[in-house]
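quick q for whoever's on today - can somebody do inverse folding on this one?? i tried earlier but teh output was garbage lol. tokens:
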């Protein structure tokens, strides 16, 4: 994708390098253009950060979307003309949400509360700090992606579970697994870009969830907490995608103090009594009025056969199976190879894809199923 980035000379300039980095991490071409002659003093910097020449306002390069960097507003007349020309040509234009705020620590500005706002406090030449809060670079990159995505889930409630659960043994030890949460986060963001009202119920993650308006993140720790958080919110959902690696077993008791290996009653080879945790997916599958239900299956052998069994047993509409022993697939990697099994018996193997691209394929199926 080609992003036309309109850069100015205002105090928000300090936020532009991290914004460019976030856009380029998505492998988008970033084409810088300067909104004022004053911005030209940094032209070489923008050109090298974007790995592209700085374009001219009167002959801007073709792009799929235009992004106004925070320092580009208020818009000089020439940029305003460019923006309306682009909009007329059907090219989406995105502005970085900003809000003025006290430069020093204080409450977040009300206008930007729904966005992940980061203080862009630039030291000024004459002393003091520029008072500016901006949406964070990852949130802005998501907004850019959303601007070029068909809103085929607009207004629909989509609940996603992500990450591992953690089952405490005592205050210092626990049972958990290797889920990073990236697959679940990718599903949540794919749904958000399509206009869904997203609820992401997640265990402790190794990835950051960008704060976005319309994405509610609900952090939990244990399977029991995830079960409760999902059931409390399920009535409002058109679809639920259960990607979390929920612990199947938890210690029967959680010790209030650290269990000492020398304590009386602790054997040389101790055993840990376990109990089954609630099966959230099966509970949703058994609801009399349930949303469109997508499960996952982390398998190590006979992937399709085990996944088909889970699809039927847990009452899913779709089941996404991944072989977690395959290199580059499954837990804590950037890619995944998923096979989608459907209730109607169809089996769709996807190639090895980035988790974001795999999530898009799964959301294509969800959107098709929810289409009127
Ligand atoms: O987080 P990443 O590092 O990106 O890794 C992604 C992933 C490997 C975790 C993901 O792709 C995946 O496979 N998630 C499901 C993991 C899992 O627990 O699979 P399972 O086969 O044990 O469970 C089957 C289904 O039942 C899953 O939808 C699971 O969320 C659900 N389940 C399981 C147990 C339980 N007590 N409650 C549940 O809801």
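ok took a stab at it. sequence:
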């Amino acid at each position: 994708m080609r992003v036309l980035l309109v850069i100015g000379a205002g105090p928000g300039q300090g936020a532009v390098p991290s914004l460019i980095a976030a856009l380029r991490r998505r492998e988008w071409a970033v084409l810088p253009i300067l909104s004022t002659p004053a911005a030209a003093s940094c032209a070489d910097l923008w050109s090298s950060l974007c790995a592209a020449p700085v374009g001219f306002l009167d002959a801007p390069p073709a792009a799929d979307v235009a992004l106004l960097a925070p320092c580009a507003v208020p818009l000089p007349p020439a940029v305003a003309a460019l923006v309306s020309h682009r909009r007329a040509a059907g090219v989406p234009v995105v502005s970085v949400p900003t809000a003025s705020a006290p430069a020093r620590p204080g409450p977040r500005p009300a206008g930007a509360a729904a966005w992940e706002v980061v203080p862009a406090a630039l030291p000024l030449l004459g002393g003091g700090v520029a008072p500016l809060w901006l949406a964070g670079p990852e949130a802005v990159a998501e907004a850019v992606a959303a601007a070029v995505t068909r809103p085929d889930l607009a207004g629909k409630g989509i609940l996603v579970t992500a990450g591992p659960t953690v089952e405490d043994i005592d205050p210092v030890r626990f049972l958990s697994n290797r889920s990073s949460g990236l697959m679940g986060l990718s599903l949540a963001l794919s749904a958000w870009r399509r206009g869904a009202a997203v609820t992401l119920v997640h265990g402790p993650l190794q990835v950051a969830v960008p704060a976005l308006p319309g994405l509610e993140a609900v952090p939990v720790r244990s399977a029991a907490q995830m079960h409760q958080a999902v059931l409390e919110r399920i009535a409002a959902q058109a679809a639920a995608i259960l990607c979390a690696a929920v612990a199947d077993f938890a210690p029967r008791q959680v010790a209030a103090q650290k269990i000492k290996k020398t304590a009386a009653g602790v054997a040389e080879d101790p055993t840990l009594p376990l109990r089954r945790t609630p099966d959230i997916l099966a509970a949703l599958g058994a609801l009399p009025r349930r949303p469109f239900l997508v499960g996952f299956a982390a398998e190590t052998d006979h992937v399709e056969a085990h996944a088909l069994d889970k699809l039927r047993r847990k009452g899913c509409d779709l089941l996404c199976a991944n072989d977690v022993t395959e290199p580059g697939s499954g837990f804590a990697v950037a890619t995944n190879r998923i096979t989608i099994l459907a209730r109607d018996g169809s089996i769709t193997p996807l190639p090895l894809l980035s988790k974001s691209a795999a999530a898009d394929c799964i959301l294509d199926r969800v959107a098709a199923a929810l289409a009127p």
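fwiw Residues 161, 163, 179-184, 223, 242-246, 248, 277, 279-281, 295-298, 310, 322, 324, 330-332, 336, 355 surround PMT (CB under 6 Å). also Residues 355-370 form the longest helix (16 residues). so keep that in mind when u check it
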